[in-house]
Design a protein that fits this description.
The protein has four domains: 181 residues, Alpha-D-Glucose-1,6-Bisphosphate, Chain A, domain 4 (2-Layer Sandwich); 49 residues, no CATH class; 51 residues, no CATH class; 59 residues. By secondary structure, the protein is of the alpha+beta class. A seven-stranded antiparallel β-sheet has the order 1-7-6-5-4-3-2, covered by helices on one side. The chain is globular.
Amino acid sequence: MFLKKNDKIIIGFYIFLAISFSSALFYNSTTYDDLPTPTWVLEKLTFLEFERTLDIDQEKLFFTMSDLENFPKILPRNFVSINILEINENIIIAEEEIQEKGIRTKFLVKHTLIPNDEHILEILDGDAKGTKIHQFFSTDGNFTKLTTTVDVNLEGILTPFSYLPKNNVYHAMDTVVTTFYDYAKGHDNLEKKKIDDLFREILLRPADKKGLEYFSVLLESNQITIDDIRFELLNSEEARNVIKPSELKQINELREETIVKIDNIYQEILQRPYDKQGMQHYGTLLELEKLSIEDIKEQLFNSEEALSIRLSTPFYQMIDELYMEVTGKHADSDVLFYYEKLFSNIAAHELQITMTREDIKVDMLDNLIIP
């Protein structure tokens, strides 16, 4: 279907509304073991009002939010797909697939436009049926004012989400608005925009200030090309851990062998069963062949959770502290097992050997650091 520019503007803007509410709906979902509880001590969400005044031209912000092709760049970790089912004058019906915190959901949404003034979104199916988002778009001098009201109607399995803390919901909506605002502000030259687009495409995030300045200087002086930057980002350590929204697998989509292997790693290193988000993340990366089993072991071993477990054991804590003094890094499993075996052998043979902290540091230099 061929769409005129104005049609693309309308579609894009309504997609933004759907993502805003959906991200807000599922924001912080992983901070709960299952669903928000207890509902009897929290206020039920029935109506929300959110307002932002932004230092940007209304038309520039509006066109940024309307450029459908750029949505994967603006919200690369959330936007999965949109399927336009019907366009009839100022009404659009679309199926929109959005992902947040590992939760992927589809909404059938009716969009109504009152040109330049009001935008109305209504969810037509599922347990959010009847939820309406009404957004007012206006200009105040050189600023743009966005006011959004939401009539919340959640039933069935979504009922507990009616009790999410308002602050969390407002924070999520604010984050989405800020994301579009930052993208609309853009960069001061074409080279920086190209670099930022590459970061969004490959690493699913905006370019950080340090990376942007580093690559832009090299690009502007013709020391590297855009293809060189693409190659470097694709082969970066960060890229190995990136999963596109369309790639993320649900647990029931993973191979049984994958689930067993990752659960064993969780039990070994974190001393607990896997959590849903962790299994989705590592299971997907393993089956995409971006990470190996050893890579996953290393990442979990060096996690804050694993570190806190090690520090709860006096012996491991001492070895970790000494290894940090010698190398500047936390002790890995090989180091810990080495000293555990060493001291076990000493005890087993009832040898009269005393090793001070300095003795252990010397041993680390002799046996673990220097080949």
